[in-house]
Structures are given as structure tokens and as C-alpha cells.
Predict the structure.
Amino acid sequence: MLSVKTFAKTSCFLTLANKLCRFSSSSLSESFYNEEQHGIQKTVRKIIDVDINPFVDEWERRGEYPAHKIFKKFGDAGLLGIHKPLEYGGLGLDFTYHLAMLEALGNVNCGGIPVSIAVQTDMSTPALMRFGSHELKSEFLAPSIRGDVVSAVAVSEPGAGSDVAGIRTSAKRVGDDLVINGEKMWITNAYQADWVCLLANTTTDRGPHLNKTLICVPMETKGITLTKKLDKLGFRSSDTGIIYFEDVRVPAKNIIGEEGMGFTYQMMQFQEERLAAAAISLMAMDNIISETIQYTQTRKIFGAPVLDNQYVHFKLAELKTEVEMLRAAVYQTAKTLGKNQDVTELASMIKLKVGRLSREVADGCLQFWGGMGFTNEVNVSRYYRDCRVGSIGGGSDETMLSIICKYMSILPKKSK
Ligand SMILES: Cc1cc2nc3c(=O)[nH]c(=O)nc-3n(C[C@H](O)[C@H](O)[C@H](O)COP(=O)(O)OP(=O)(O)OC[C@H]3O[C@@H](n4cnc5c(N)ncnc54)[C@H](O)[C@@H]3O)c2cc1C
């Protein structure tokens, strides 16, 4: 047990440490990650500090970042395949090592780039890794792990976002080929992707959960076109677009796993996607809270720092507490996922919570920056715009609530 003397010393130390360094720390991550995992985070941090953050403002203005260049940096450092099989160039480590990498991505000074990277590690490749043939993994997974190519995941359509079962893009068998027609909306990395993990209907004679197939489609294939980039509220430096498929022919061997299992594979793949989105958000929230502490400590009103108002420091302590609680859930769920167990319910709860909490952090912190918070000079305003998509992309809050209700057996039958 902590003695009174040690307690007093610890408190003094904490006060001093806080004065010296206000930058993000998390007691949970300090104790959860081992030395190697902290090492992974340092490597990520170095790439971010040297190759990403100094250029983020420019890329945000331009509406695109050089994904190939950045992916290669990550690939060369082994960061795009941490938990992927050695056979395809991965490191073969467990999911928590990958989680360490994802969490460190939250240090990028914008939301678009970390998510663009996570598309490759956690959205376009999990099903391929689990169910793809050796040939397909050699052709698409291995170069994705090396960072030689950029990928995208194409599920959503203009008429089907939340309703994944309602997609209309078709891939019809003609001899040994599939002929694809349709359009995919909101696709992250669309303009820079070399290949896309596409969900399409391969048959009309089975129900909506058994007629879908995931297919690896090279983006240079004839019949694929893109219109101009979507102009977005946030995630300015990641390119998002509509992909049109008109009589696009790919070999049927590009099917991931079994034909007709695409819906199920995609639902499984969503677990990684949702957990990754949450992991990235943790450090981003920590950083916004830390920056707000730094600012409010120096900004004086009525002769005292803004931070000294009890409402301000209590609110920041409350937000920090919420982030740590969420972090605990992310860590536990990542460990379970690493054992190949289904985490759909927990991942949905986490996705719901992170969408809402990041909005609360953004709004609560921005308020304490006053007018400065409303300018584009500070990270908090970009964060305010970027985090909004968290409650929409990858499944809206309401979609998460529906999934949770299903697990609670309280979703009315007609909504299922
Ligand atoms: C920046 C960005 C990047 C994206 N990247 C990709 C990508 O790379 N690949 C990809 O496939 N997709 C991507 N998406 C698409 C994203 O996954 C969808 O936008 C999302 O699933 C919601 O679909 P929707 O936009 O069609 O909204 P809709 O399905 O039209 O839903 C609209 C709203 O209805 C409400 N709603 C939904 N379901 C229910 C319900 N059951 N009960 C009550 N209310 C409900 C919600 O508030 C929801 O926001 C991206 C989206 C954005 C904005």
C-alpha cells in the first residue's frame, strides 16, 4: 500500500512533472505496452515528426498527400504488416503490436492521413489475409505490406451506405472473368489507390447476405473512371471520391475466399476497421486535451490563467478520464481480437463511444481556446472538423446502436 510519505512525494513529483511537461501521456498505455511496442511507437513518431507533420498544413490546403511516398516509409519500417504473416512480408506479431502502431498514428496533426494508412492495414486487407488464396495474397497483400502500393476499400454506394446489404454494384461471371458494373461512393484513397477491395453482388438468385463477394480489383483496369475529388468538411488531405465501373473485367481468381461470402467477410473486416478508427483517435484526443492545457495555462483573463477556473480544469480532467476509460476498452478488445475471437459487439460499442467522445473533446476544448479556437491557426479547429466523420464513416452511430440492440435482443424484428 502507498504510505502517506510516498503519496506526498508522488504528488509533489506529479506537480513538478506537469509543470515541466504537459504533453500527452497515458498511464494505461505506459503499463499496457511492452518495450518493443513502445519502440514501435517511437518509430512511428519519428516518421510523423520528420516526414508528415511538417507538411500537413500544405497537404490539407492541397486536398491530397503523397500516399505512395508515406506508405513506403511505413512499409520499409515494417509498420504496414505488423500482425500480418511472415510469408507475405509481415512481422507475424500479435494484434497488440499493431495496436501500438495505430495508436501512435494519432500523433499526426490531422485525421485524414492516419485513416488513409489504416485503410491499408485494417480495411482493405484483413479479409484478404484471412481468406485470400496464396496467389492473391502474393499479388495484393505482399506489396501492400511492403508499402509499394496503395489500396482502398469500396463498399459504400450512392444508394447504400448504412445499408450494406442494399449495394447494387454487380460482378457477373463471363467465362473465367468477372465483369463489374456499378459505382462506389466516398472511397478513401480512391485517386491514389493501385487496387481496391470491392464488394459486389455476384448473383441475383440468393438473398442479400449470400449474394455478395469481395474482389481484388486493380485500379488501372479498363472501364474504371473517377470524377473530381469530393470537397469535404474535414479529412482534407485524404482523397475521397466516387469510382465508376463500366464493364470492368477481372479474372474470377481475384475473388477473396468463397464466392457469396463477401457480406460475412466484410462484417468481419468491419471489426478491425472500427477498432482501428478508435485506436487512432485516442492519442489525437490526448493531444488536443494537452494542447488545451498548455494554451489555457498561458492565456490569462481577469489576471489569472484560464486553466485556473475550476470549471476549466475539472472539465479537462473529466475528458481525460473518459479517454482513458475508452482506451481500457480498446486494449481489452484488441487482445480478444488478437485471439481470433468475435468482437463485433464490443467494437460497435467502442466505435459509438469514440465518435461521440471525440466530438465532446473537440467541442469542449475548442471552447476554452476562445476566438483562437475558431481560427485555422490551431490544431483544435482542424480536429473539430476532422472528428465529425467519426460518427458517420465506417457505420454511423445509429448503425452501431442497431448492432448493439441486436446483441441485446431488443431490436424490433422488421429492422433486422
Ligand atoms: C470521409 C469519408 C470517408 C469514407 N470512406 C469510405 C471508404 O473508404 N469506403 C467505403 O466503402 N465507404 C466510405 N465512406 C462511407 C461511409 O462508410 C458511409 O458514409 C456511412 O456508412 C454512412 O452511409 P451514408 O453516408 O450512405 O448514410 P445513410 O445510410 O444515408 O444514413 C444517413 C443517416 O441516417 C441515420 N441512420 C442510419 N441508419 C439508421 C438507423 N438504423 N436508425 C436511425 N437512423 C439511422 C444516421 O444518422 C446516418 O448518418 C466514407 C465516408 C466519409 C464521409
